[in-house]
């Protein structure tokens, strides 16, 4: 089968990508920390769209966000009256 520039060579073509600003909004993780986590294999790998542009697969970032532990705060005062 021949491929052309107009014919996708992978199944991920319809999957949405997000850029840095959206990644920061969804994860609240700084750019440098995200790249550190990525190097350690603890964050989704970015995709180079061109030499100055990177993106992440939205699905992978959302899976990462959902996998993070949830912290719940108890806003009730403690028994001795101190908050």
CA-based gyration radius = 19 Å
Give the helix/strand class. alpha+beta
Q: In order across it, which strands form the biggest sheet?
A: 1-3-2
Cα(first) to Cα(last) distance is: 68 Å
Describe the global form.
Answer: elongated
Overall pLDDT metric: 83
Largest sheet: 3 strands, antiparallel
Number of helices: 3
Q: Please report which band the strand proportion falls in: under 5%, 5-15%, 15-25%, 25-35%, 35-45% or over 45%.
A: 5-15%
Order of helices and strands: EHHEEH
Estimate percent helicity.
25-40%
Number of strands: 3
Q: Which regions have little confidence, pLDDT < 50, spanning 5+ residues?
A: 1-5
Summary?
The chain has 83 residues and is of the alpha+beta class. It has three helices and three strands, in the order βααββα.
Q: What does this 3D model show about the protein?
A:
The protein has 83 residues and is α+β, with helices and mostly antiparallel strands. The protein contains 3 helices and 3 strands; from the N terminus they run E-H-H-E-E-H. Strands 1-3-2 form a 3-stranded antiparallel beta sheet. Strand 2 and strand 3 form a beta hairpin.
């Amino acid at each position: 089968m021949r491929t052309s520039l107009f014919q996708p060579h992978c199944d991920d073509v319809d999957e949405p990508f997000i850029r840095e600003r959206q990644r920061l909004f969804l994860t609240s993780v700084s750019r440098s920390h995200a790249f550190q986590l990525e190097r350690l294999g603890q964050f989704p790998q970015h995709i180079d769209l061109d030499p100055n542009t990177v993106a992440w697969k939205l699905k992978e970032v959302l899976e990462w966000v959902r996998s993070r532990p949830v912290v719940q705060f108890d806003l009730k005062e403690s028994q001795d009256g101190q908050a």
